[in-house]
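Weekly puzzle thread! Below is a chain. First person to post its structure in token form gets bragging rights.
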Amino acid sequence: MELGMIGLGKMGANMTRRLLKGGHRVAVFDPRPEAVKELEGMGANGAGSLAELVGNLKPPRTLWVMVPSGKITEDTIWSLAGFLSAGDTVIDGGNSNYKDSQRRAEALKARGLSFIDVGTSGGIWGLAEGYSLMIGGEPDAVERQRAIFETLAPAPDKGWGRVGPSGAGHFVKMIHNGIEYGLMQAYAEGFEIMKAKTEFNLRLPQIAEIWRSGSVVRSWLLDLTARALAEDEDLRAVKAWVPDSGEGRWTVFEAIDLDVAAPVITAALQRRLRSRAAEPFSDKLLAALRNQFGGHAVKRVRE
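Winning reply:
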């Protein structure tokens, strides 16, 4: 099957490689010529613009957009739509907000274009292991792209599926990432407690390896934890600064809108925000209040 890939970041490039290995013909475009050239060396058909990319494909065309969520996705989809014809399909495989995907699906439908939102999980390991694909869109439109999804997934019958109408794929991926926040935070806190228990001189890499086999907390995230600790047990080279892609926030907002309690995901998101403050004002105020009402000692900043 033939398709165009727009956006050759780590995941977009690796997805293209997997498709090429699977026998698909792929035309590629990225603002960085060097990224296009690298994929051309693997058999992709490179393009220097969106117009050229579309021109390299035979109708009905399938264009997969793999760029960061937000304005760049919006601009790319609408620029792309100007070169497409009725019957073509646009796939957004990035982490877009599901409400944006619903809106885009309706607007593209009015032009005779199909829109599919694909929540994509797998990270840098997807090239070798395959990607988990959570797909939203009209059943017929999704079915027409079956060969692509079967190639990108871990197996033709595993790791992918249409989960609902337009927006549903990105909604499910949003919840997936919210759960991921909670799981990661639990591992981080557990290992920090063990590290603090200095009297036992616990070896964290060893414990992570033990848990990987037979334990009820074994998971791919634990595999990655073991890998990170094996490389640097004390994580001396890593700053305690944790960004968020936005999907954890959207999950918390959705929970509030739906009157669903989500304390673990919410706390995990708040902990990420806290990690970015070198000297949290709230902690300073707590120390000052304890001094005010109880005369408790306050550590002063040396001038």
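Puzzle host: Confirmed. Bonus trivia for everyone else. Residues 113 and 228 are 44 Å apart (CA to CA).
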